Amino acid sequence: ELENQLATKSKILDELKQSLAFNGSAEQTPEGLSLRIPELCEMLDSIANQVVQLKTSMQSITEQWRVYDEAYAEVSLKTTRYLYCINQCKPS
């Protein structure tokens, strides 16, 4: 499966290289480059928005894991206490 994933990634990388070579040769003029600037700015804004959304999601997930860890520790402690009590109360 890893080999298939590697082959797929390799193919995608080759396609990106070809696309970059095609775009690079066609738009090396100042006019061609100036047409790409707004597109790149839009992409940058989109990425920045995605990063903000990701940070918000990660903060929420981190908080949920913190609550889970606290609850797990409490349940684990109570379980240990109950098991200790059960073992101590067994008739010999």
Automatic annotation (TrEMBL):
Q: Which domain of life is it from?
A: Eukaryota
- Signal sequence coordinates: none
Q: Name one GO biological process term.
A: nuclear migration
Q: Drop me one GO molecular function for this one.
A: kinesin binding
* Gene Ontology CC annotations of this record: nuclear envelope; perinuclear region of cytoplasm
State the name under which the record lists this protein.
SYNE2 protein
Q: Which gene encodes it?
A: Syne2_1
